[in-house]
Amino acid sequence: MLWLEENRKKIIVNELLHWKKSRMLPDQYCDYLLALYTEGNQPEEAKKRKNKVLLYLANLITLLLIPISALLIYFTELSITLQTVILILFFSACIFFVFYFSRKVKVMHVPIISAALILLMGSVGFVSEIYPDNERILYVSLVMNCVLWLYAGLKWKFLYLWISGGLGFFLIVISIFV
Known about the structure:
Layout: H1 2-21, H2 27-37, H3 44-74, H4 80-101, H5 109-130, H6 135-156, H7 159-177
Helix pairs in contact: 1-2, 3-4, 3-5, 4-5, 5-6, 6-7
């Protein structure tokens, strides 16, 4: 008898999820009925949908941080100290998203790419501001970024980081000797 009751609840919950997905009932009604039939335990599908929305939101935020960083570095009159602090916060936000969502999904590529680009723009902007006439320090900064990308690409087996680091290093070597 208990099996029959559980099976009945499962059918009702699946039907409510279908109604919510197809918008046959307002979300508030479906959420209320789902909470009633699951006794407050959200079904796995609803949890997955909520995680997907958060994942897309995190990807959107980290993607928007790239142009904001470029605007901050190249088109504002903020002091280098303030720019550096803001870029460190942006970089930290990207890294936070990577670690926060690493439990929910295997890998978060967009925040990793965003963090790498923000770090590159920040280091180039910082070095260019502090040492405007010294190209060697700029090259050292670029090489350090490329080495970091190569290392991360090899360690985590991300082909795009490995290719970016290798290609960047190759272009730096060409620009030095040409």
